[in-house]
Each structure stands twice: as C-alpha cells, then as structure tokens.
Automatic annotation (TrEMBL):
The keyword Methyltransferase applies. The gene is pcm. It catalyses: [protein]-L-isoaspartate + S-adenosyl-L-methionine = [protein]-L-isoaspartate alpha-methyl ester + S-adenosyl-L-homocysteine. Transmembrane segments: none annotated. Its EC number is 2.1.1.77. This is Protein-L-isoaspartate O-methyltransferase. GO terms for biological process: methylation; protein repair. PANTHER family: PROTEIN-L-ISOASPARTATE O-METHYLTRANSFERASE, PROTEIN-L-ISOASPARTATE(D-ASPARTATE) O-METHYLTRANSFERASE. The active site is at S64. GO terms for molecular function: protein-L-isoaspartate (D-aspartate) O-methyltransferase activity. SUPFAM superfamilies: S-adenosyl-L-methionine-dependent methyltransferases. One of its GO terms (cellular component) is cytoplasm. Catalyzes the methyl esterification of L-isoaspartyl residues in peptides and proteins that result from spontaneous decomposition of normal L-aspartyl and L-asparaginyl residues. It plays a role in the repair and/or degradation of damaged proteins. It is found in: Cytoplasm. The lineage of its organism: Bacteria, Pseudomonadati, Bacteroidota, Flavobacteriia, Flavobacteriales.
C-alpha cells in the first residue's frame, strides 16, 4: 500500500488532462489529486492507474474512467456536509472522491464479492463511508432518504422512480441512461412533484443490473 512521489507526479498530470477536458471544479480536481487511484486497482494494472481510462476490477466490473468520475461528481454539485447516495460501489474510488469532498456517503453494491472487498479496503486508506450496503440500487435507500444528491455509476436502462423520490427539493440525480451507450442525465428536483432534466453527452458504463440477471 505505497503512494510514492512517482504516483503523486502521475496524478498531477492526470489532473492537468482532466482540466484540458473541461473539468473545472476545484474540489473535484483536489480529490483526484489526493486519492491514490492505483491502490484501488489489481496490481497487474497499477501502471495504468493514472491514464484517463476505465479498467477491470473484480467480478467483471470496472473502475470508471477518471474523466467520467470527475464529470459525474461535478454535475452532482457536491458540497461539504452533503448526504449523498451512490449506486454501484465497485472499487470504492468514486466513494473516496465523495468522502474527500466532505460528503456523508451511503453506497449500494449488488455484487457480494466487491461489496466485501471494498468494505475492508476503504478504511485502510482512512475513508469511512456512513454505510456500505449489499443490495439493489434500483430501490435506493428509503430509510435514509431524502438525499442531497444521488449518483448512479452503472448504465441504467431507465430512470428508477425510487431514486427520484429520494431526492430533497433542490437535489440532483446524476444517472447514465441507455443500453450500449449511455446519455448522462441530470434530474434536479424543483418541487415535491416536479423535476428538471438536462443531458450531458455520451458515456460507456457496465450495466445497472436488475435482480440476478
Ligand atoms: N463507482 C464504481 C464504479 C463501478 S462499475 C467505482 O468507482 O469503481 C458499476 C458497479 O455497479 C459495479 O460494481 C456493479 O456491480 C454495480 N451494480 C450493477 N448493478 C447494480 C445494482 N442494481 N445495484 C447496485 N450496484 C449495481
């Protein structure tokens, strides 16, 4: 579990790449500059940790591309102290970005292997989510709702209604929607019954799976 000057230098260059690609939120860039992404990846891939690409983790899943993590986090408009729900814990990297920004984080993962691995791993780096849940993200986390923001880190075939219902007024749901290619959708709750939808281009995610399909 080493973070060397070499890794830190590579992270600075990654942050420059993300700035060139249009990421401007200083808190997001600071989180990416701070978090040792190479430690979230299997050792065989460590040399690739600071290029702007997605990579395989356990259970046929991926750690999202740094640009995608940065863009989704920027779109979520996270402030310190916000209560955020993440769907798709995976490696825990996105969870760490949210924690580094001062959010209180709840995160749901449906694959037991990843859930257990990440639950053990994050505290080793000092990252303490409020709750990691082994369960189905489609239903959200009603007992802890409402949230200041909800971020879905897998491609959803449609927008699950429970996630919209669990937003505070003024809060955002950031969710990639589509099958092979996803469009980044941002829903802002404008009142108890109304939502404003914006879209932000194409991304590629592993699928948000229903039941045990
Ligand atoms: N945020 C992660 C991205 C992992 S990829 C990271 O930074 O590494 C997406 C994750 O969503 C996978 O781990 C996958 O197992 C999980 N997932 C897929 N369908 C899900 C569902 N219905 N509920 C919760 N998690 C789900």
């Amino acid at each position: 579990m080493k973070d060397t000057f070499t890794h830190q230098g590579m992270r600075k260059r990654l942050v420059d790449v993300l700035k060139q690609k249009g990421i401007s939120n200083a808190d997001v860039l600071n989180a990416i500059n701070t978090i040792p992404r190479h430690l979230f990846m299997d050792s065989g891939f460590i040399d690739h940790a600071y290029v702007d690409k997605a990579f395989p983790i356990a259970a046929d899943q991926t750690i999202s591309q740094p640009y995608t993590v940065a863009k989704q986090t920027e779109l979520l408009c996270v402030k310190s102290g916000d209560k955020i729900l993440e769907i798709g814990t995976g490696s825990g990297y996105q969870t760490a970005v949210l924690l580094e920004m001062g959010a209180t984080v709840y995160s749901i993962e449906r694959q037991n292997e990843l859930f257990k691995k990440t639950k053990r791993f994050l505290p080793k780096l000092g990252y303490r989510p409020k709750r990691l849940i082994f369960g189905d993200g489609y239903i959200g986390l009603k007992e802890e709702a409402p949230f200041d923001g909800i971020i879905v880190t897998a491609g959803a075939p449609y927008v699950p209604n429970p996630l919209l219902a669990q937003l505070k007024v003024g809060a955002k749901l950031v969710i990639p929607v589509g099958d092979k290619v996803q469009i980044m959708n941002v829903f802002t709750r404008t009142s108890a019954t109304e939502f404003n939808k914006e879209t932000f281009g194409e991304f590629r995610f592993v699928p948000l799976l229903e039941d045990k399909n």
